[in-house]
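Researcher: We're teaching a course module on how sequence relates to structure. For the next exercise, students receive a sequence and then see the predicted structure as C-alpha cells, so they can try to spot secondary structure elements on their own. Here is the exercise chain.
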Amino acid sequence: MNRQILLVEPNYKNKYPPMGLMKISTYYKNLGDHVTFFKGDLRELVLDDTFEMLKKQLYANDNTIFWEQYKPQICQFLKRGTVALLEEVPGYKTNPIITDLFRYYRQFFFHKDYFKPEFRKYDRVGITTLFTFYWDITIKTINFAKQLCKTEDGVMVGGVMASILADRVEKATGIKPHVGTLDTPGELDPDNDMVIDTLPLDYSILEEIDYHYPASNAYFAYMTRGCVNKCSFCAVPKLEPIYKDFLPVSEQVRIAEEQYGAKRDLLLLDNNVLASHRFNDIIEDIKAAGFSSTDTYIAPNQYEIAIKNLRQGQNDRGYIKSCVKQFRKLIEKYGAEKMQDVYDLLRDKNLLEEYTATKEGILETYDILKPYFEKFYANKPKKRYVDFNQGIDSRLITDEKMEKLAEIPIRPVRIAFDHWSLHERYEEAVRTAVRHGHTSLSNYILYNYKDRPIELYWRLKLNVDLCEELDASIYSFPMKYHPIEDPNYFNNRDYIGEHWNRKFIRTIQAVLNSTKGKVGKGHDFFCKAFGSNEEEFYKLLYMPEAMIIYRFYFEGIGMTDQWWSDFNSLSSEEMAQVKPIIEGNNFTNIDALDLLPNARKVLNYYRITRDEAEQWIKTGGN
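Model: And here is the predicted structure for the students to work with:
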C-alpha cells in the first residue's frame, strides 16, 4: 500500500515501551507501508519533516553541496529565524533561489503551514495513551498529531487512558478512541483479517527515538488477557473484559530474536496468570522460548544486527541511528588515541553524526569495522529471568503451581497484597513459594483506598518478619490508589482515601523517596524507616517532613524529641487546633490564624523547609 504511518507516544516518562504501537507497526509493515515512530516534542518531528522538504529543493538547485552537513544550523534558523545562523551555509548569500528557499521554509515553519491539508504528510496517525494523570500532555499530543494526518478518519487513539476515559478523550480531541485491545480482524482495515494483538512486536521502532526505556533488554508479551476477579479499584475488567487463558509467546520470541537479536529477559504483563486452566502449557511455552531454569543469554552483536537490517531495508532510519550510537561507544570504550584510524574513517565517511550518516556509508565501512565490533561484543553468558510484572494472585497459589513455576527462572515472584484482610492467605502463599525455592519475592501494596494507614504498616512489617523467619528477600512496593475514572481526580494525583489525609500521604512518600519506592528486608532498617511499633508509626505520620527527610540531623540536635514532647503536651483544645492543620499539610498561613501559644509553637516546627534544613546541615546549624 505504501502509506505513510506515524505512530506517537506522548513525551511522558515510562518504564516500558508501547507494545500496542509495536504491534501496529508490524501490521503496517506487513502491508508494505512506511512507519515512523516518535516520542518527544512533536515540534521537532515537524521541524525534521520541514528540513527534509527544504533539503529536497536544495539538492534540486545545487547537488554539489552536502546539505545534511548543515542540518543543525538550518534547523535552528527554521525555528528562530536568525539569519546569522546561515553565515557558513553555502549559497545562502550568493544564490538567490537558495536564499528564497530558506526564507520560504522559515515562514512555512513559523506559520505552521505543516498543519494545512495540502502539506500534511501522513495517511494514518496513531497515538497511544497511558496513565490518566498524564492527561494534559496526552491531550496536547493528540490535538497536535491529529493535524498532521491527511484525513480525520486516519487518526487512531488507543491505550489505557483512552479506553478508561473514552468519552472525555473524544470531547477534548474530537477523536473517538479505540477501547480495549485490537483483538478482532479488520479493526484498522476492514478488508484485512490480521489480528493485531497477536502479531509480533516491532522492536526496531525503538531505535528511532532518543528516549531510553529503563526495561529495554527484554521481550514484552502477554500469555493471558484479562482477570477473573473484578476488584473495585482495578481497571483491567474494562481494558480486557474477556479472560483469555493461553497466548503462546515462543514463536514471537523466535521471530524477534531472529530479526532484532536476543533479549536477556522475558517480561510478561499478565494480570492474573494463575487463573489460567492452561498454566502448565504457559510454563512449557516459556521454556520453549529459551527461558528454562538452565538457559543463559549472550548479549548479541548489535552492530551485526543493525547491518543485517540495513541490508534488508528494515527501518533504515532506526538502524542508521543505532550504528552512529555504536560508533561513538566504540571510540569511547577504547579511547580516541587507540581508535584514531577508526575515527578518521568515520569522519571521512560522515558517520559520526546521525544527520550526516548514510546507509551506503555504513555498509561501505562494514568489512573494516567488523573486527572491532567482534571484540566489542565478546560477551560472556548471563542468567536469564522471567518476570510476571503485574504480580500473581496469592489466593491461587498452590504447591503444584509453585513447583511448576520453579521450572523457569522467575525473579522475583511478585505477589499482590492489596488489603490486610488477605494477610493469612498472603502469608501462606509466601510460605508456599519459599518452600519451592522461590526466595526472591516482591509485592505491590495498595494504600489510600479503603485501608487505614496502620494496615499499610502491618503489611510492610509482615513482609519484614517473613524475610527474617524464612531467610527470603521480599521487596514491597507501596502503590498509592488513584481513582482514574473520577472526574475530580482522573488528571491529577490529589485523591485522598477515606482514612487518609494529605500529611499521612506525604509522610509515606517522604519515606519512600529515601528508599527509592521500595521496602526491603532488614528489621533494623524497617524499624528506623517506619517505626518499631504502632506508636512509632503514628509518631512518624505526624512528624514534620524535614525531620523525616533529614532524620539523623534533627535527632542529633535533639529537635525531634523536643517536637514530640511539645506535641504530646498539647491540651485537648490545643490539639483540636493543631491536628486539622497538620493533616491538611498546609502551613503557609499560620501567622494569620488565631492560635493558642502552644499550638503555634508546635506548628512552627512544620514550617522548616528542606532548603533551610540543608543550609543548617551545611553550616552546622548557623
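Model: If you want an answer key for the exercise: Residues 553 and 617 are 7 Å apart (CA to CA). The radius of gyration is 29 Å.
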